[in-house]
């Protein structure tokens, strides 16, 4: 009785709309209990916004829920089925190491998924152990929360617990479970699974559910499934543009890693770019550069085309007409993305209005940055505060000419210089999760159980546009190395 009361007091308020979809969409499954869970990270502000009681979450029973050792009242754990194109090759997938506990209804009546990642084997584990190592779970916590405060749509991290058990990868590593919060876990790959292994009615059911969950504003008289496609395209165009504007590289943009809500999801081999180079790749498994920084907009369009293919039976009874509707919708992505990217780049340079030459001005700057291997984030920050010597570009006739053109451009708008400066301050982060700083935090946590390094990093990252003195150390570049930085998917 005491245990149940403690769980109820935590504030869990579950509904399970996904569990009411056809049984073929998922498998009911309970988490595999772990030996001795320990709560090491709790996102207090996120917990409060979800209507949860922080003290209850920090209790033994609260930790047991995050570990999968107890199921809170109202939850119906399940593993979602989905498919996906992984590096261009289609395959059956599914939640191989994650379980959806249910959907928390927040005090604002919002519906969000609560998912445990690393909670044990499922029918979709594909010979995996269903577990997660501590390092990758901490990486997701750091990067997803950094993305959130940067103003980029993303899944959130509520908690991380260690399990008291080891997972075997290249070596024995401490195990952990991450609690992830998402608008939903509906993916392009979810539709690919239902389209390939379900019926036309199943696709319609999933599409109706997605509309109800994420796009309830659809006009009943509109072509609702074309509307769904168009809205997903719009959200992805805005999302990918925001990635590019801060130098974020997802690392594994498979179709199962594209959320229909428009949130960034599945932080595996992700990282932020230092020196500007469109060919930048950090992922150890991306040998051909398919998901390089400069390729991300094209890959997003490719993924959206795969989504459109699943909707063809719903778009029009005549296949040729359905394809035409889908192609017309997909063709809008490039212009939408370009609009968001160009508007964002203008803001990074303090430009309020539009001129035809703006794109040339922007691309000339990026070209100089690439040629001189100038740091992406620090260059824009230096321009923001007129510290030209810190751009890595000063001292050349080419940059001097560019700077003169930029200043003339700013002079041709009505807004005063102070307004341009404020626009740049709010558009150019002082800091990002520098790869070497993230690795420093992960090493301290995993090897020495010292979480203070990560806590300091999270604190500094929580105010990316503050441009405060204490952030200076976290904006410095790593020491030169002969080894290229590489990230790993953590599976």
Automatic annotation (TrEMBL):
Active site: 256 (proton acceptor)
Keyword terms: ATP-binding, Magnesium, Manganese, Metal-binding, Nucleotide-binding, Nucleotidyltransferase, Transferase
InterPro entries documented for this protein: SelO (IPR003846)
Assigned EC number: 2.7.7.-, 2.7.7.108
Positions annotated to bind ATP: 94, 96-97, 117, 129-130, 180, 187, 266
Organism domain of life: Bacteria
Reaction catalysed by this enzyme: L-threonyl-[protein] + ATP = 3-O-(5'-adenylyl)-L-threonyl-[protein] + diphosphate; L-tyrosyl-[protein] + ATP = O-(5'-adenylyl)-L-tyrosyl-[protein] + diphosphate; L-histidyl-[protein] + UTP = N(tele)-(5'-uridylyl)-L-histidyl-[protein] + diphosphate; L-seryl-[protein] + UTP = O-(5'-uridylyl)-L-seryl-[protein] + diphosphate
GO molecular function, one term: magnesium ion binding
Ligand binding (Mg(2+)): 257, 266
Known cofactor(s): Mg(2+); Mn(2+)
Class in the EC hierarchy, top level: transferase
Protein function: Nucleotidyltransferase involved in the post-translational modification of proteins. It can catalyze the addition of adenosine monophosphate (AMP) or uridine monophosphate (UMP) to a protein, resulting in modifications known as AMPylation and UMPylation.
Family: Belongs to the SELO family.
UniProt-recorded name of the protein: Protein nucleotidyltransferase YdiU
